[in-house]
Amino acid sequence: MPSHTENTGSLAIVGLGPGKREYMTARALKAIASAEYVLGHSMYLEPLEPLLNGKTVISSSMGKEVDRAQQAIDLAKTHAVAIVSGGDAGVYGMASIVLEVLEHDGAEIKVEVIPGITAANAAASRVGSPLSGDFAVISLSDLLTPLEIIEKRLDAIFSLGIPVVLYNPKSRGRPHNFALAVEHARKHLGKETPIGIVKNALREHEETIITTLGEIEEHIPAIDMHTTVIIGGSESRIWRRGDDVKGIITPRGYHRKYIY
Asked: Are 18 and 44 in contact (CB under 8 A)?
């Protein structure tokens, strides 16, 4: 067991980004290196194996987030602890539940939330510059948020004409939520609106598709829980070089002020 000193515990809630070490921040790497205990979902711990020698590693499965948070807090009262989360820990990650559990626990622990590249940034980087100005992010998972609330948010966001990033777009347990999002998008956006579909962004087995709102149905079978979907806004366009599709551009507004 790792040695420890009383009342010198700390807790780092670490965003790992897409998963590859080259996309982790230096601060995230340092927090993991300094930790005596590292906790996380097995999927996120596996790529970290070279960094975990000599540490106590506690792995758990999906659905155990509350238990994982409480265990991390209990350990952090007297040890240096890192609890890891894919992407950014504060964006659909572990930060909120850890801080909520800590709030109820009442323990005085030094806590740091360490940011990571979230799926919106990772996916956008693979399809050009679709998120150059204002944009919105919404998860289609109705595990914690009722579907009727998700639909209200989708309708409101698409009405603004800004790009929308969809997390958790489709799974075997909820195969129809993405189709509902497309219905709401079509109320407000034209069929030529560009869509970027990125599976495993900045990870192994990456796949990227650029299509339009009018042709999205043929690509729905390729979408799953490892996919991030970016639906462009009213000014977004497909960037072409000749007949080749190069990516998606959402102008930031320079064309209204400058000649180029």
From this structure: no
**Rounded Cα gap, residues 122 and 201, in angstroms:** 6
Give the residue numbers spanning the domain of 20: 10-117
Query: 44-54 burial by CB neighbour count: b if 16+ within 10 A, else e?
Result: bbebbeebeee
HEC per residue, 24-58: CCHHHHHHHHHCCEEEEEHHHHHHHHHHCCCCEEE
Q: How far apart are the C-alpha atoms of 79 and 95, rounded to whole Å?
A: 19
Residues 6+ apart with CB under 8 A from 114: 12, 13, 14, 15, 25, 27, 28, 31, 89
% of the chain surpassing 90 pLDDT: 88
Biggest alpha carbon distance in the chain? 66
Measured at the CA of 43, the angle between CA 129 and CA 74, to 5 degrees, comes to: 110
Same domain? 132 vs 162: yes
Say how far apart CA 167 and CA 178 lie, in whole Å.
Answer: 10
What's the mean pLDDT in 104-129?
97
pTM of the model: 0.92
Give 217-249 pLDDT, tens digit per residue: 999 999 999 999 999 999 999 999 998 999 999
Domain of 203, CATH number, reads: 3.30.950.10
Extract the runs of DSSP E, i.e. beta strands, from the chain.
10-15, 37-41, 56-60, 80-85, 110-114, 128-129, 136-139, 164-167, 194-199, 207-212, 227-231, 237-241, 244-249
Asked if residue 126 and residue 112 are part of one domain, the reply reads no
